[in-house]
Amino acid sequence: MNASKQSTVVIATRESRLALWQAEHVKSRLETELALSVSLLGMTTRGDQILDRSLSKVGGKGLFVKELETALEEGRARLAVHSLKDVPMELPDGFELAAILEREDPRDALVSNRYATLAELPLGALVGTSSLRRVVQLKALRPDLRIEPLRGNLDTRMRKLDDGGYDAIVLAAAGLKRLGAGERIRACFTVDEMIPCAGQGALGLEVRADDLELKRLIQSLTHRPTWLATLAERAVSRALGGSCSVPLAAHGRWVDGALLMTTALGHAEQTERPLLRTLHQEPVQTEAQAEALGQRAAQALREQGAADYLPQAC
Ligand SMILES: NCc1[nH]cc(CCC(=O)O)c1CC(=O)O
């Protein structure tokens, strides 16, 4: 046994029920598959504190990871567990995603106390979601819907639905299932009706880039098909300067050994503008091929006029 197996590996985690479930899940895999000793360090991030404004307006995905990275930097923890979709496309210098676990259900789910499907929602029904990606795709499916912001962790969002504030809300199926709330799902959108965001349903394990020992230990947890698919998805977002203020969907799935990539890009302000869509299918075996596939999708979006859809800075 080497030194790191004898010392305890500390996982820094947010304290929402979902984050704690994910951290516990990784803890038990590290214990059973790698015989590591693991403990959790719970922390509150800026993203957890700011609940009254849309994330796209207050700084985006980085809000949920910065405090965890500080804990890694200061040596208070060695590992941070993230929903991959909340991880910014570019990590700050000195940090790396050292493992990507097998993706669970990547779909978005409709949750409602009154209606079983999107089609059942009456004309002009009120749907809650703060995700621009979900807003633009909902509008494409049902232009009549009224869509209102809905923030907070999954429990908070379901409580706001139960309090009668909405006819239905849209949440990630993976999150609901992890919380043991899978029975609240009335219907899942297919990944073609509502294309998921890059990384949805997958977990990413972040470490300090110089922690070679832990990187080597945990790399065996990576599920290669998920790793390649999410690499391609994140490449689309990166190529377009992706952030929370861009309603971009990018999803890769494996079909007969080839990676089938679909994307959709909506306009952040003018939601009546048509969605731009791409579909590419290619045999992918290497990281470089996965990234190239993502870049090809981004290029195809640009050729359809993506520049007019993106915020001015991009
Ligand atoms: N943005 C918040 C968030 N981050 C990860 C999940 C769910 C789990 C996942 O998609 O991996 C959710 C909830 C949601 O989007 O409804």
Automatic annotation (TrEMBL):
Q: Which domain of life is it from?
A: Bacteria
Q: Which Pfam families match?
A: Porphobil_deam, Porphobil_deamC
- Entry-linked InterPro entries: HemC, Porphobilin_deaminase_cofac_BS, Porphobilin_deaminase_N, Porphobilinogen_deaminase_C, Porphobilinogen_deaminase_C_sf
Catalytic activity, reaction form:
4 porphobilinogen + H2O = hydroxymethylbilane + 4 NH4(+)
The Porphobilinogen deaminase C-terminal domain is annotated at 227-302
- Give the residue range of the signal peptide: none
Q: What is its EC number?
A: 2.5.1.61
Q: In which pathway does it act?
A: Porphyrin-containing compound metabolism; protoporphyrin-IX biosynthesis; coproporphyrinogen-III from 5-aminolevulinate: step 2/4
The Porphobilinogen deaminase N-terminal domain, residue ranges: 9-215
Q: What CDD domains is this protein classified in? A: PBP2_EcHMBS_like
What's the miscellaneous note? Answer: The porphobilinogen subunits are added to the dipyrromethane group.
What job does this protein perform? Tetrapolymerization of the monopyrrole PBG into the hydroxymethylbilane pre-uroporphyrinogen in several discrete steps.
Q: What is this protein called?
A: Porphobilinogen deaminase
